[in-house]
UniProtKB/TrEMBL annotation:
InterPro entries cross-referenced by the UniProt entry: Tscrpt_reg_PadR_C (IPR018309), Tscrpt_reg_PadR_N (IPR005149), WH-like_DNA-bd_sf (IPR036388), WH_DNA-bd_sf (IPR036390)
Protein name: PadR family transcriptional regulator
Limits of the Transcription regulator PadR N-terminal domain: 11-81
Xref: PANTHER family: NEGATIVE TRANSCRIPTION REGULATOR PADR, TRANSCRIPTIONAL REGULATOR YQJI
Boundaries of every Transcription regulator PadR C-terminal domain copy: 94-174
Cleaved signal peptide residues: none
Length: 178
């Protein structure tokens, strides 16, 4: 699946929770999905226009795209469900840390260590954030929505623990020059 349908899927998913402006769609994606999904305004506004032209969303208040509120239509709900049911195609990751470490012999002495220490800190911050989210979720009533959110939270927790373990191990394995 190309980038545009993925962006449209994220936008439809956000709008399935209620009417929003383009700015609110981006904020919802960043706040709720930000640990595993990112969209820029440059991706969201063209997706809003394309989805509106396709009849998947409608403006609930007329005006410019940036000030309008959008809501998902019944056709948009059908499209959302169809796209969610499509096979997932993993995209190759782009990891700036690994790119730098791969060419680590070109880094100044000590820089690899600094990069790994920063990665350890990011993982620890993420784990603390996930613990707070889990504590909030534990106060919610059980149900299907809670269960699916818990699955994605567990992914984030596992991912952060794996990053923490890897970065700690990599820090110990650095050559003496670092």
């Amino acid at each position: 699946m190309s980038r545009r349908p993925q962006t449209e899927l994220a936008v439809l998913g956000a709008l399935s929770t209620g009417s929003m402006t383009g700015y609110e769609v981006r904020a919802a994606i960043t706040e709720i999905l930000g640990d595993f999904w990112h969209e820029s305004f440059g991706q969201i506004y063209p997706a809003l226009n394309a989805l509106e032209q396709a009849g998947a969303i409608a403006r609930s208040t007329p005006g410019r795209t940036s000030g309008s509120r959008f809501e998902i239509t019944p056709a948009g709900t059908v499209l959302l469900r169809e796209r969610l049911a499509e096979p997932h195609h993993a995209t190759p990751p782009r990891n700036g840390l690994l790119l730098r470490l791969f060419f680590g012999t070109q880094l100044p002495p000590g820089r690899s260590r600094e990069l790994l220490e920063a990665e350890i800190e990011r993982a620890e911050v993420a784990l603390a954030r996930f613990a707070a989210i889990r504590a909030d979720m534990d106060t919610e009533p059980p149900g299907a929505e809670h269960d699916y959110r818990a699955l994605t939270l567990a992914y984030g927790e596992h991912h952060a623990r794996a990053h923490l373990a890897w970065a700690t191990e990599a820090l110990r394995a650095l050559p003496d020059r670092d």
